[in-house]
Structures are given as C-alpha cells and as structure tokens.
Amino acid sequence: MQIELMASMMCANYGNLETEVRNLEEGGIDSFHIDIMDGRFVPNFAMSLNDLTYIADTTKTPIDIHLMIEHPNNNIQLFLDHLRVGDTVYIHPEAEYHPSTTLQKVINAGMIPGIAINPGTSVETVFEMLRIVKKVLVMSVNPGNAGQMYLPYVGKKIIKLLSLKEDMDFEIYWDGACSADKIMEYAPKGVKGFVLGTTLLFGRTISYQEIIKNIRHLQF
After folding, report:
1. Which of 1, 157, 190, 218 has the highest count of CB atoms within 10 angstroms of its CB?
2. What distance in Å separates the CA atoms of residue 217 and residue 106, rounded to the nearest whole number?
3. pLDDT, tens digit, for every residue of 17-69?
4. Would you put residue 206 in left (φ > 0), alpha (ψ -120 to 50) or beta?
C-alpha cells in the first residue's frame, strides 16, 4: 500500500532551510506541507508568503498549503501566484463566508481544492463541500501549534469520512500528532496521506531518508 507522506515545514530547521528541503527531497518526501497562520483564525503566527515562495522556488516536489487564516478569499490569489498547477490548497470552511467561492478560485487556477476540518467541526457542517473538494485534511489536534496531543474522538470522524469518500470522490489526509501506530491503524482503512511533524520526522537523530524508509516499511 502506497501512502503519501508530507513534511510539515513549520517544524523544519530554519537555520538552513535549503538544506532541509534538499534532504527531505532526497529522502523521498511526497510533498511539502506549508502552514500559513495569521494569528487570528488560530492563536499563532507561522509560515509566511515569503516562506512559501522560497520553498516553491527551491524544489519541484509538490506543495500543499494549509491556510489557517480568516477570510482566505480576500488574499487567495497571492498564494496561488506562487504555486504550480497540481499543487494543493486547503482552507478552513469556518474561516470564510462563502467557502465554495474560494474553492472555485483554487480550481480555476488548476490547483487541487481541499478543506481542513478542525477537531470540533462535524462532518455534517461540511457535507456539501465534500462534493467540491478532492482532499480533506482532518486535524487530529487543535490547529496552531506543533507537538500537541492526539484527540481520540477524531477517529470516529475519520471513520465517517471513509464511508463517504468513494461516493463523493475525495481522499482523506491526517494532520497532527501523527505517530507510527496511527499510520498503521488508519492507512489500511483508507487514509491516503499523513502530515509528518515533530512526532515522527523532525528533531530525530537519524536522517530523513532513513525515517521515511522506515515509515514506508511499516506493516499495514
């Protein structure tokens, strides 16, 4: 079973970001996950447009940006201008008055439209948008900071989404507190990809290549 592994770049070593990108690329990472935070929608400031631009200019590996910002429709073009056709853009439905309008701009630009679902957001409240998007990023922690604890009730939400994904034509991705046991449990059930942060990928004593190889060799 081939799963997608995304590097959460807010956890990278910014003392030498180019080396981090190169090492992750050589290690076999599938995409670079870029968290943009505005200090309003979530209580933190994280990566910026400049970070996105630098990483996009440094690598040809796909990029997915996770916009944790209020009213992304106001500034969505700024981000789209620095992405390539086929990259992914996730928005939070709660952050926009008319999220389908923002998603349509993503589609029109040739990007893959996605929504991110907070732990406290029910599947029912985003049901119609599941027909628009191609990817659903399920937050297993409250968004805004790395290194948080997994919220167990999110597992039931994932099971509900798995029952809908074939009919509504979307894939499910995991973000937050992603450990090896979570991958072994949910990949066989149909979760397509996992965002890797401090739990599995960053801050280790072995190379990214070895870590990624070990993850791909997990027994599902």
Report:
1. 157
2. 34
3. 999 999 999 999 999 999 999 988 888 888 999 999 999 999 999 999 999 99
4. beta
The label of the residue with tokens 């990809």 reads: 193
Residue pair 6/28 in contact by the 8 Å Cβ criterion: no
pTM comes to 0.94
Strand partners, 32: 7, 63
The two tokens of residue 177 are 């507190």
Q: How far apart are CA 197 and CA 66, in angstroms?
A: 14
Between the two ends of the chain, the Cα-to-Cα distance in Å is 8
Beta-strand ranges (E) seen in 88-152 are 88-91, 112-117, 135-139
List alpha helices for 48-147, DSSP H. 49-58, 76-80, 99-108
Report which residue type is found at 154: V
Distances (CA, A) of 219 to 3, 37, 109, 182, 216: 12, 35, 38, 12, 9
